[in-house]
Amino acid sequence: MRIVVLTGAGISAESGVPTFRGSDGLWEGHRVEDVATPEGYERDPDAVLAFYDARRRAVASTHPNPAHRALARLEGAIGDRLLVVTQNVDDLHERAGTRNLVHMHGELRRARCLACDARPDWDDDLRDRPRCPRCGERMLRPDVVWFGEMPYGLDRIEQAVVACDVFVSIGTSGEVYPAAGYVALAAAFGARTVELNLEPSDPAVPLDDVRAGRAGELVPAWVEEVLARR
Ligand code: NAD
């Protein structure tokens, strides 16, 4: 059985990483247009670099929760028949032990050089304009995919989605494309579709199994069901 799991900010909420869209429509008190678009970066690079420096520091003091750990357990049991596709820029899946993982919206712990396109691992602040370890220019930005930019790994993700038997969406509002379209693609190719989310989202197609609640409870329970059925 091939499984694709798509995760969003909701899976990390119980680890203490705030989700994207609070009721005020702001991300950590900032307008999305200011901190998650290339135009926002052009307007005020210092503010954007400082924003992601703060996010990187905040995530460093968090820990994977039972939902991340359950997915790592599932990979331990079924290996590369599980692909986790995350929209999250935190590293909680890999810290829980997941290896077969695509960060489609990039990673806080990686930088990208606007001069030479290197993508070095990065744990420090970027606002002081450090040099790129490859070319020496001071043009590093967070390797995070902003609105209007091309997500990573799309070919690999689409191949896995059309070939999977089960597609599971966890902790995502389903408002950001192309990720939001994967559930319909999976259904069109015959997969069973499951949603585990705090509140039911408004998917483009009816899902086979919708469970409302906290990821920290729903995901371990779902993983146990899958493992029991093998
Ligand atoms: P979103 O904030 O738009 O939606 C989060 C969803 O999670 C909501 O539907 C909410 O009901 C649900 N949720 C909240 N708490 C939950 C819980 N405890 N258990 C289960 N579900 C819960 O997030 P999104 O759909 O991922 O889109 C936002 C974009 O913002 C992503 O592309 C991502 O790059 C970025 N982002 C990432 C992080 C992170 O890396 N942790 C955090 C904030 C934003």
Task: Summarize the entry for a quick read.
Substrate binds at residues 52, 55. With 230 residues, the protein is α/β, with parallel strands linked by helices.
Shape: globular
Q: What is the string of SSEs from the N terminus onward?
A: EHHHHHEHEEEHEHEEH
Spatial strand sequence of the major β-sheet:
3-2-1-6-7-8
Total strands: 8
Biggest sheet record: 6 strands, parallel
How is the CATH topology of the largest domain named? Answer: Rossmann fold
Which regions contain 5 or more consecutive residues with pLDDT less than 50? Answer: none
- Beta-strand content bin: 15-25%
Mean pLDDT: 95
CATH superfamily of the largest domain: TPP-binding domain
CATH C-level name of the largest domain: Alpha Beta
Give the terminus-to-terminus CA distance.
9 Å
The overall number of domains is: 2
Derived from helix and strand composition plus strand pairing, the structural class reads alpha/beta
Tally of helical segments: 9
CATH architecture of the largest domain: 3-Layer(aba) Sandwich
Gyration radius over CA = 18 Å
Bound molecules: nicotinamide-adenine-dinucleotide
Percentage of residues in helical conformation: 25-40%
